[in-house]
Amino acid sequence: MQCTLEKADYEPLSAEKKAAAVLSESRRGITASDEELKRLNDIISPRIKKGQSVYHIWSSEKDSLMCSEKTIYNHIDQKRFDAINLELPRKVRRRLSRLSKQNFKVDTKCREGRGDSDFIAFITAHPDTPIVEIDSVDGRVGGKVMLTVHFLDAQLMLIFLRDANTAKSVSDIFNALYHNLGRELYVGLFPVILTDNGSEFTDPAALELGGGEDSPCHVFYCDPASPNQKGSIENNHEQIRKVLPKGTSFDDLDQADMQLLSNNINSLLRRKLNGRSSYEVFSFLHGEETLRLRGVSPVSPEDVLLTPALLRNRQR
């Protein structure tokens, strides 16, 4: 019986050439023309020099760029743009442990019932409760210092300048927030506050509207030398340090500088927020009027500036 199946002759040499051609094509990638590289460079490099991340630029201009985020990194790696790798935020940074300080505590028993295990137990019982992390950012030793207030749900950060790193300076700021926002809004925004063991945070009752079991607000403390337990605010401090490197004095700055700095940080488009800014997400969750009460305003994506030039160029 004759086989009726279709037959094909196999030619090894020809087959090998075809396979090599397919493999070569798959590895070639997209070759951009000089004109296309110039167009991309004109969009991307000036904004990298402003301190904007590649993801931020790509998210705000992807309809114009018409390429992937990875392609941008490849062009930078291959030195096809004016911007160089040294101007990009470092992708990996080792954090050194802080040295402990022996400072005066307003309430020596402030950690009782407010430790990390208490925080975990509270959040487990109330999983939908918004969390706010607070911290200090130092300038020169003994000089002005920042208080940062970071809303975890929107990654939005408020920055306040203080003359000294004292517990009273922190409680004064939260008292001002209370009177500015009103009790209902304050309680809604600050039901849980997480901070470290700095002496400036040892008056929790002032932030909790009196403290006690019936308080509508609750302050909790991370374990000693464990900044990773409030890693979100620590990561956001990286944006501050792009403008004010560690060791920079804050003594010549004022609250208007803090507002300008936070507006630029809060306008950064973030991968964690699906390409939206902290300003946009906070407005959606808590209302734009809340931001207006604090004088917070957005910066357009192309104008976000996160280099020392931001405050150096401000008219005073």
TrEMBL record:
GO CC term, one of those recorded: cytosol
GO terms classed as biological process: DNA integration; transposition
InterPro entries (alphabetical): Integrase_cat-core, RNaseH-like_sf, RNaseH_sf, Transposase-Integrase, Transposase_IS30-like
GO molecular function, one term: transposase activity
Domain Integrase catalytic: 123-286
Annotated protein name in UniProt: IS30 family transposase
The species this protein was found in: Cloacibacillus evryensis
